[in-house]
Amino acid sequence: MIKKLLFFFSLLPVFLSAQQESPETVQCSLIEAEMKAHMALHQAASVGFLNDYNLIYHRCEWSVDPAVNFIQGAITSYFKPTVNGFTQVHFDMSDSLRADSVLYHGMPITIQHSNNILCINLPAVVPLNQTDSLCVYYHGVPPATGFGSFYQGTHAGAPVIWTLSEPYGARDWWPSKQNLIDKIDSLDVFVTCPLGNLVAGNGTLVSDITNGSNKTVHWKTRYPIAAYLVAIAVTNYVSYSNYIHLNSGPDSMQILNYVYPEDLALAQSSTPQIIKTIALYDSLTITYPFSREKYGHAEFGWGGGMEHQTMSYVGGFSNVLISHECAHQWFGDRVTLASWHDIWLNEGFATYFEALTEERYFPQNWLNWKKSTTTDAMNSPNGSVWVDDTTSVPRIFSGSLSYSKGSYLLHMLRWKLGDQLFFRSLQNYLNDTTLAYRYAHTSDLQRHLENTSGQNLSNFFTQWFYGKGFPSYQVTWGQTGHTLSITLGQTQSDPSVAFFEMPVPIEFTGEGHDTTLVLNHTYSGQVFTANLNFIAEYAFFDPDLHILSGNNKVQTIQSPGAMASLFSLYPNPASGSMQVLNMNPSNPVSSIELYGIPGNVIRSWQVSGNQNLNSIDLTGIACGLYELRIKTDLGFVVKKLEVK
Asked: Could you tell me the residue range of the domain that residue 610 belongs to?
């Protein structure tokens, strides 16, 4: 979900743009404080006991009218206890909803409903690993919390209802198990609504049946799904499809689009770009993870998007938005974060893969993406990618940390490992049977990166993921003949990290040549030497922006090539004597040496540094080509000299 914080937690009549503003621009302290308290209550109440059973199946039957802010439903759940002595089933369910009854084997049973938890008392112990079922009947007006977990409004005068449950909003509109431990193995959704509407949903469309003035739409998915990825949207949509041939076989997969009638022309001209986006993601990682069902878009009235499984909800049709949400089908839906501490496993990946479409298809935007993303990441100089407060929704969806810095961690890992090992690591991560269609922690990703590359990445994750801030580099360099000397220093924006380790690229250019040196930087003040077959004039720190860093300084000690233009030899060729003219008196000369072309010193002179014109005695110097090396306070200058 891209820049989700941009939607105020109370439902605003005007929706904000998620593409241009970072979450930090939204200042609503009262709402944020209320949400923080609300989330703390939820976590304290539910996390402990929702892991005592495995959810096998949901049959969700909902009745809604997009003109009315109300939902009525029946949720049939199949489950298996994972502990002995199992006598209660708990669901997350807002206190704003009312449970009318719960039937167990066709008979009503007792319940308690408080603190947003529905507690269902079973009449007898259900044995460990035995499948059982029950059905919850409920109704109510969902509360206006989250990002609009259940929104009822209008578009162009037409009524609409849509849902958006990430991170904690599923319980606002249906009794669910919304932790990050247990996915629903299989799901059927039946939505009854007035005629004239279409219903967007997860998985495959099974049927759309008219019954008087109403219709019932049936969606099914046979892929495991997290509760926060279950969604419906109901309005007077128009639908059309695009199709794609996937790498896994000859059959075409449907890309189903539900859009507002007033935006049909724009959508039809924009959504076909998703075909090459999916093809790119397939080629870099694995085949689209839900290929037996579909992919698609459902338009909704929010400034960003949400990666509902097999059908992303989008507030527009830009390449940035639809490629971001599509990437979540791999990173977020197939493999889902196991903790909101690790939201970057969803958002950092989607942001980076969104950028990979720019690199591949819009290369003119690639450098700008890197510049703008590093700038945004550095807007939080004392923050970590690891989320330190999961009760704060704004912190979870921090644009500068979870999105920008998170995506740049992937960019740095790609640089550190190389393309082949980086993308192979991601393939192994996605294909891991313990993670696929399940949940993952950052440690799981690290394990695959290390196992595939053979590199120990403990320092990288300690510094860049858990640590706060970013480095600033100080480069001091000089050249004597063809020997280059580089001193590389580093400071940090936050004291939590004493030093950021990264291979550091520096490009040197001069005399029509260029070369890039990659320095294995392990401590501040480290000195490196290298030989160049040309005299360097300029140095460029990390020219391709491989590293998240800012406020870098390159001290050229003045670049020898640039300084050389400030000295002239007269005459040249010379015989007997010559003069060295220094046109920059602020850079005095201390000595002059004459080298033979093999590199041996022929003669040297100590000179008066405050003189702009120095006479050099060449008596006894054999005819030939030489290098005159002029030492100044800022380094060496090398000039070619012919003696005749």
From this structure: 566-643
How many Å from the N-terminal Cα to the C-terminal Cα in the chain? 74
Question: Please, which pLDDT band fits residue 581 given cuts at 50, 70 and 90?
Answer: confident
Report field, pTM of the whole predicted structure over 0.90? no
Q: Which residues contact 557 (CB under 8 A, 6 or more apart)?
A: 476, 477, 478, 634, 635
Q: List the structure tokens of 115.
A: 């603190």
What's 158's domain CATH number?
2.60.40.1730
Per the structure, the count of domains in the chain is 3
Q: Which residue stretches of 418-542 are H helix?
A: 419-431, 442-453, 458-460
Per-residue 3-state assignment (H helix, E strand, C coil) for 25-70: HCCCHHHHHHHHHHHHHHHHHHCCCCCCEEEEEEEEEEECCCCCCC
Rounded to whole angstroms, what are the CA distances from 173 to 78, 304, 504? 20, 21, 50
Q: What is the C-alpha separation between 110 and 171, in angstroms, rounded?
A: 20
* For residue 571, cis peptide bond before it (omega within 30 degrees of 0): yes
CB atoms within 10 A of CB 371: 11
Task: With beta carbons less than 8 A apart as the criterion, state whether 59 and 136 touch.
Answer: no
Q: Assess whether 575 and 529 both reside in one domain.
A: no
Tokens of 570: 């007269």
How much is the pLDDT for 584? 73
Gyration radius of the chain over CA positions: 32
Both 509 and 596 in one domain: the answer is: no
Is 498 a domain residue?
yes
Q: Which two tokens stand for residue 129?
A: 């690993």
With helix as H, strand as E and coil as C, how does 563-594 read? HHCCEEEEEEEEECEEEEEECCCCCCEEEEEE
| H/E element, 631 | strand 624-632
Residue 467 and residue 459: Cα distance in Å, rounded? 10
> Max Cα separation, the chain?
116
What pLDDT, in 10s, does the model give residues 532-561? 999 888 899 999 999 999 999 987 655 555
Q: Does one domain contain both 638 and 549?
A: no
Can you spell out the DSSP letters for 177-246? --SSS--BSEEEEEEEEETT-EEE-SSEEEEEEEETTEEEEEEEE-S-B-GGG---EEES-EEEEEEEE-
User: Are 347 and 396 a contacting pair, CB within 8 Å?
Assistant: no
DSSP 16: P
Measured distance CA(583)–CA(595) in Å, rounded: 23
Residue 587 maps to a domain: yes
429 vs 432: CA distance, rounded Å: 5
* Res. 48 pLDDT band, cuts 50 70 90: very low
pLDDT tens digits, 52-64: 999 999 999 999 9
Do 90 and 177 share a domain, yes or no?
yes
State the DSSP string of 63-99.
Answer: E--TTSS-EEEEEEEEEEESSSSEEEEEEE--TTEEE
DSSP secondary structure letter of residue 331: B
